Please model this.
Amino acid sequence: MRGRTRDVREENMREEREKGDEGEGCDCGCGVIWWCWMGWHDAFRREFPQLVRFDEQGRVYGDSAATTLKPRVFLNALRDAYEGLNANVHRGQYALSMEVSEAYDQAKREILSRLGLSPSVYEAVTVRNATEALNLAAHLVTRLYPGERVVGSVAEHHSNLLPWRERGVHVTRPFGEDGVVEVDGEIVSVTGMTNTTGHAPRVDRMVRHARLVIVDAAQLASHLSLPGVDMLAVSAHKVYASQGVGFLFIRKRIVEEAVEKHIPPLTPGGGTVARVSMEEHVYRDDALRFEGGTPPIVETIAFAKTLAWLERFRERLRVHEKRLARVVEEHVERLPRGARVLSLPWQREKGIVSVWHERLHAHDLASLLDREGVMVRAGWHCAQPFHEYHGARATVRFSSGAYTREEDIIRFFDAYARIVKKYA
Amino acid sequence: MDVDELMHAYLHAEKRALPGAVRGEALNPSCGDACTVYLVIKDGVIQDASFTGDSCAVSTAYTARLVEKLKGMRVADAKRLREEDVLVLFGTPDAPRLGCALLGYRALQRALKAYEEEGKA
Model:
């Protein structure tokens, strides 16, 4: 095995994959012996075609918080489903339609359980993305609890701020040192993990004192483990799968309550109704009441398959991402003079950093970093209030994904320091 | 686009307001950059031009060269300036920076408009 050329190894790996990834037992238990030869994380990274291209170009992708790169298993699942499971999900028609409906329902259940939520407790309402999920949450909450305010943190993404503000119910409260937003019997809608700094608020502690808890889990979901709160918003494209599909995970009993109180869907239309006449209509009395139009069926199925694949790396990724967060913390301590970061007073859990400079503008820094082969985002990252809270200018953000290496983070910080030294 | 040349222009750009000038402002909402262009016009000729504002290197450098070019220019010629005429000042920037490079140009358009309105008043 050792001493074979790279081409032969590639050929063998391709054969192994085609055989269904079943290899002889290996040291690390990943099941594919060839992968052990190169280290599990290298093998994991090679499953992301766009990442392989970036590696070949010597470039680093530092924008996973904006959207994640996609693994081959996801791309294959998408293509396979469109090739063989392409039909709409309205029930009771031809066999393929029933098969697709079953696959779609099963995918939802699988997505819930792989993310740590029980399908017997939660419904998964398919929407376009976390923004839409939060709009649906705001729609439901303000109708179930009219007049009640909703508490959010200073670090919210605009998508967990505007839907509440538009309904006149939002209140911002600062974090305590322990990662808790103080609530006293109120409804709280808080980020599960900030997209600017990778901090995860202590949602478990807030639950005890809140009337209802909604979590914007867009970023948190990439850590594959969600807290058991009342509602959660997720975007699949931030978890190594499709754009255009997201979910509002919602406790079944809240759906029942919404039905009892005759709350109409946010997006009324086909799929939400039990019957429609020339004069009137009756909405469905289950969660599908809130799913208007044909959902992203294939994308949902492909997301479930992606999560199933990620399962085999779960524990290793957990350790890996923790390590990346530590590397970020270490380098933040050593940033050059004039550079400042967005921060919160407890340890971050993901390798994300947003930094601004007194003399150098974020767009210039991002352009110069791009020329050095490091891809980062510049601007407000849909978290302008959080910038204002720090008195910050627009920031440059490097954000890790599961495939990010320690050396990628180091390369970002080194390039940043070099640029600042040269021009500031 | 030569990065060093541009950064030099940025770091040495002279920002000043012109009292009694007609002015135009432009904002880049994606980052909060703002730019104000001032024009002192007499007998249809731009006697003096300057700019102020907190903005990125690309925006500052292009605007600095643009106002230099405007000095002594007839208003009629300034009105005929196109985006391309501005972008060549440092060579076309990387695509994501086009908006930055044209911030001063947009402020100029507003200043020229304000001059026109003044003339009609």
Remarks:
- The CA atoms of residues 104 and 297 of chain A lie 6 Å apart.
